[in-house]
């Protein structure tokens, strides 16, 4: 079994809610603070800088954009935000009630995002031109979205218990999961060319190939509430267990290890590969955790 080392770095107060994070092209980690309405930047080993938005905007997922800036969803304010590496913020309003959540850069140079409250996938150019594509399922609650290796975007359909695929022309394909009420949330492109996702209600990690073949891998603790997943520099996938205060690692062969976080009740949410090639996870209690293999 691989041994890991975990360091926690406090970045905000306990009520600020670090939620998701990503690596920027400037060599820093960028993260959202969902409860305090802030975007944070931290170079590994340095103190964080926080950029204030509307305190009630609810920034959630953040992703590096094709223009070198960071793009994020404002779940409660129904907006897409853009922040440059110098801290300049631009916000793009969306239709009221759409509740954007996941966001990712697409192969077409645009940002693609999910609208949890409207059963739509949105596309926003870097100049702010918006296009929306309806899903063929009602009440799907599309959550995290990621670019696949096939030139399309793949997303978790939390309440529809399915994985969706949207081509850049807006064509949507729905792949139902074998496990009922699995509630997939996080999804990422894996090192094996497949998409890997977490089933928060079923306590499983899932894998779907580009042609739609699905495998599911039960976690040792089925009540762990896996929330987010990312590819690591070690050729494996790393995920958070929000309900069990752990981070986990799964190989592309389905071998699973889980590791307790040092601080009890830290509520790990987002997880990403950092600019230092370590795994970083956002702890809702106010810190970022750095995870390395020994």
From TrEMBL:
InterPro entries: Vgb, Vgb_bact, WD40/YVTN_repeat-like_dom_sf. It is an enzyme of class 4 (lyase). It comes from the Bacteria. Substrate binds at residue 227. GO terms for molecular function: lyase activity. Signal peptide: none annotated. The active site is at residue 269. Its EC number is 4.2.99.-. Keywords: Antibiotic resistance, Lyase, Magnesium, Metal-binding. Mg(2+) binds at residues 267, 284. Its cofactor is Mg(2+). Inactivates the type B streptogramin antibiotics by linearizing the lactone ring at the ester linkage, generating a free phenylglycine carboxylate and converting the threonyl moiety into 2-amino-butenoic acid. Monomer. Belongs to the Vgb family. This is Virginiamycin B lyase. It comes from Allokutzneria multivorans.
